Amino acid sequence: MLWSRRDRRSDTRPLCISHGAGWPGDDGERYLREFDWTGTRDPGAWLVVPDCIDLLGSLRSGGWAAHIQENRALALRARELLCEALEIDVPAPESMVGALAAVPIGPGPELESPGWSTDPLQELLAERWSTEVIVSRWPLEPERVLRVSAQAYNSEDEMRFLADILKRILSEGHRDRG
């Protein structure tokens, strides 16, 4: 979001000039026209969402219901693998899990800006093992949860790989790095 005082709008221009550039009228009109659509926004991705939904549903004989059921089963299996690797109890009943599961992983290092900083463990997993997961401060810093999301392109082998890596990182005393 960008907000400018009225008296500064004549000097405020978008980084990418497009459709609104040179719009006739007062500074307020030009300001709105230039920022309303910079020309780099492509609605094409939004427009094909219905086709993508249809395609994804057609990839399984059971349609969307099967897709949702398989994602949930993989999320539950991932949570089971992670809890086994970390030697912790399952944190919530199965009825509370959809295609996403969160597992508590204990405290982490203090972050300079907890609201915006990426957890060092998340960075380590991405940089060293090309593994993308979310590590969040929850419920309150320094406590954390690791969140996995299951989709059609994920596999149980990937979840097992993550569990093995996580067990190794946290058991080898890398808590200071993650």
Can I get a quick summary?
With 178 residues, the chain is mostly helical.
What does this 3D model show about the protein?
With 178 residues, this protein is mainly alpha-helical. It folds into 2 domains: 9-36, no CATH class; 71-176, Aspartate Aminotransferase, domain 1 (Alpha-Beta Complex). Helix content is 42%, strand content 8%. The chain is built from 6 helices and 3 strands. It has helices spanning 27-36, 44-47, 49-58, 63-86, 120-129, 156-171; strands at 100-104, 134-137, 144-149. It has a 3-stranded antiparallel beta sheet with strand order 1-3-2, with helices on one face. A hairpin with a 6-residue loop joins strand 2 (134-137) and strand 3 (144-149). Mean pLDDT is 87; it is low at 174-178.
What are the segments in which pLDDT stays under 50 over at least 5 consecutive residues?
A: 174-178
Name the structural class. Answer: mainly alpha
Strand content: 5-15%
Mean pLDDT level: 87
Give the CA-based shape: flat
Which radius of gyration do the C-alpha atoms yield?
Answer: 23 Å
Please provide the ordered H/E string of secondary-structure elements.
HHHHEHEEH
CATH topology of the largest domain: Aspartate Aminotransferase, domain 1
Number of helical segments with 4 or more residues: 6
Count of strand segments: 3
Q: Between the first and last Cα atoms, what is the distance in angstroms?
A: 32 Å
What share of the residues lie within helices?
40-55%
The number of domains is 2
Please outline the major beta sheet: 3 strands, antiparallel
Question: What is the name of the CATH architecture of the largest domain?
Answer: Alpha-Beta Complex
Give me the side-by-side strand order of the main sheet: 1-3-2
CATH class membership of the largest domain: Alpha Beta
